[in-house]
Amino acid sequence: MSVALCPGPRVVRVLVADPIDGYLDGVTMLLRDAVVPTPAGPVALTLVATTRWGDDAVDLARRHEPDVVVIDARLLEVPDRDIVHELGTVLARRQVHVLVLVPPGADGVLGGAFRAGARGFLIRETASAHLADAICTVSRGHCWIEGAVSTRLLPPLAEVADTRAAASAEVHRIEQRLRTLTRSQHEVLTHYAQGRRPPEIASLRSCSVENVRSHLYAGKRRLDATDLALVVTAFFTTGAIRLPRLDLAETRH
């Protein structure tokens, strides 16, 4: 008699770079051997390395081959180096996804980080509440932009969206197909592009989180998009989302 074996959790290898030892220790304890439930099945987080330096993160990525690099935005400012780009191209066999922890005063690096390929942005002081979920999301090539701080993070991302779209045939194709979305799909994707997570969207629409996820991924399939980050970009470049210009210094107070 054959016995059906249950597949184990998907393993996500994580490298963490943060300049403060105490914070780094806390993140290490949070992530070490964590198993995170997700709609696609459980994800086992494996912490492969930590460092306090941005340039070391690139060398450690070559050595340990992580799926996700969690890095403090201050460590991206290395003279004459584009750390996010280097992390994104360091391995030929797998793509490394970058999740940026944003401390106060680091807004200036967000646009460059997004242009270079970073797809996750969390406010450093409150990251622990969502860090594991954000890592799981980013590891699948999706965006994670903390909803509560989207007005702080999205303006610099919107500024680079045109540059990214100009070089992307897929974004252009998505733009042409936006009109094919159902009303519900368009509404859910709009909320998502504005930085809201599925539980927030479900609360706004008075429906279940499962219903939100269903519309989110049905819309992605209808747009024939390989990456939700490209859908977000298309919403900006077509004007489907328009954000007010904010004084970013004021939003930190």
Automatic annotation (TrEMBL):
SUPFAM superfamilies for this protein: C-terminal effector domain of the bipartite response regulators, CheY-like
Top-level taxon in the UniProt lineage: Bacteria
A GO biological-process term: phosphorelay signal transduction system
Boundaries of every Response regulatory domain copy: 13-139
Modified residues (4-aspartylphosphate): D72
GO molecular function, one term: sigma factor activity
Keywords per UniProt: DNA-binding, Phosphoprotein, Sigma factor, Transcription, Transcription regulation
Pfam families: Sigma70_r4_2
Similarity field: Belongs to the sigma-70 factor family. ECF subfamily.
Protein name: DNA-binding response regulator, NarL/FixJ family, contains REC and HTH domains
Species assigned in the record: Cryptosporangium aurantiacum
